[in-house]
Amino acid sequence: MKIQIINGPNLNLLGVREKSIYGDSSFDTYLEQLRHQYTDVIIEYFQSNKEGELIDKLHEIGFSYDGVILNAGAYTHTSIAIADAIAAINTPVIEVHISNVHKREAFRHHSMLAASCVGVIAGFGLNSYRLALEHYLTR
Ligand code: DQA
Description:
Layout: E1 2-7, H1 19-22, H2 27-37, E2 42-47, H3 51-61, E3 67-71, H4 80-88, E4 93-97, E5 119-122, H5 127-138
Parallel strand pairs: 1-2, 1-3, 3-4, 4-5
The structure holds 1,3,4-trihydroxy-5-OXO-cyclohexanecarboxylic acid.
Pathway: Metabolic intermediate biosynthesis; chorismate biosynthesis; chorismate from D-erythrose 4-phosphate and phosphoenolpyruvate: step 3/7
EC number: 4.2.1.10
Enzyme class: lyase
């Protein structure tokens, strides 16, 4: 099984950025643990702060991978272009968030992407990614 994790803007700063919201682990450290725990799964990782690069990655892997786990960061709330890319590809996409966006500012309550995704997982810290992976393994 091949799974692509895609992180959007500012998620390169995990472990440094707003630790009370996003925790103090870097994504690289978390990814290492995840790969160690799921040795049978190929877990690829891509991060970009640029909307177009996130779309290019979805196009690149969207007809060959088994699943995408996407944290589009703030683009979740704004990007029709990423929503269209998710709808255009064959690979299913799960939207994830580290924080519980529904407990936060009103502008974070709406997702432009959710309707094009399999489902949404939010609020479980970095564990949100593992829960999404479990879906692909057990469906
Ligand atoms: C986030 C929530 C978004 O609202 C925010 O813009 C992020 C991170 C999360 O993982 O909790 O960058 O997607």
